Amino acid sequence: MSERDDLPPWLQRLIKVMEQAERYESQKRKQRRKGVLPFHIQHNIAPAIIRIVVTSPSTLPKGLPFSPRTWDKIKAFVHQLGVLARDGSLAPFGERLRSLLQNFPDLLAEAVHGHLYTMHHFDPAVRFSFAYATICDWLWERGEVALTSKVIYELVSLVVERGSKFYQIPEGQIAFSQNSVRGALNWLKGLNPPVIERSELGKRLIFRRRRNCHPLTVAWGLSVWYRLKKIAIGNQLVWRNDLEEFLSRCLLLDDGCAKIAVEVAANWTGWRESILEAQKHGELLAYVRLNRLLGWGEN
After folding, report:
1. Which residue positions in the chain have pLDDT lower than 70?
2. CB–CB of 258/247 below 8 Å?
3. How far apart are CA 267 and CA 271, in angstroms?
4. Greatest distance between any 2 Cα atoms in the chain
5. Which residues, 6+ apart, have CB-to-CB distance to 239 below 8 Å?
6. 159-216 pLDDT, tens per residue?
7. CA triple 122-266-82, angle to 5 deg
8. Residues near 241 by Cβ (< 8 Å), separated by ≥ 6?
């Protein structure tokens, strides 16, 4: 029997509540020390904003239509995204985006989308990446869905529920709103080929899986797979269902289109060197090989 057992029941309950509160505060302090990032996806950022950021980083926030307070929030997010370094210069991802704008400007949203979708695989603390991937996976699993206010609200609830389970934190600690979902949609709207278009009557936006994507996007996605699976550069991969599903989800491709996208990318004349190879057995894709890993936006 402990000394606490001699205390009145109400006092025991009070002590228990105080201990729980202390553990909660201790957990929050540990999370801050570890650099845990929020779930919110900044809704004021779209491809046009990132284009200005990476083109003229030294003049920011000149040229951006934001108040100082809003710019502070945007600046924090582009730091977390890896576009800007703390000193205001371009971080490595930002440098890749600047080069991409010079050579393939239509792929800016593609690079940011893939980066957002995969960041949490390498660092689970990047919670906004987990939220973004949760939204993309839900949309991909439905194949086609109208982006109504009901769907937006459902996506908010989904991120809160899955985030709570994955990170083992109370749902009440997760700040995620309809604006957060709109932040994700900003990047999906910019993809080329598109996944979000207006309905025939133009009254609502429709998400649909796409049937193709640029060869660079394919190489970026395959490079992530190599890194995740710790596969040596130049090793030949057997084309399997798990690889096909990863590429389909990451690149938002319709059923069967990932194979075609890989084959097209392997024969792309735009490569400056042999980056991607694909080998078929008969009519079926059998093997894939990357001879150099490309980071999102690298070209």
Report:
1. 1-7, 9-36
2. yes
3. 9
4. 81
5. 259, 262, 285, 286, 287, 288
6. 999 999 999 999 988 999 999 999 999 999 999 999 999 987 777 899 999 999 999 9
7. 30
8. none
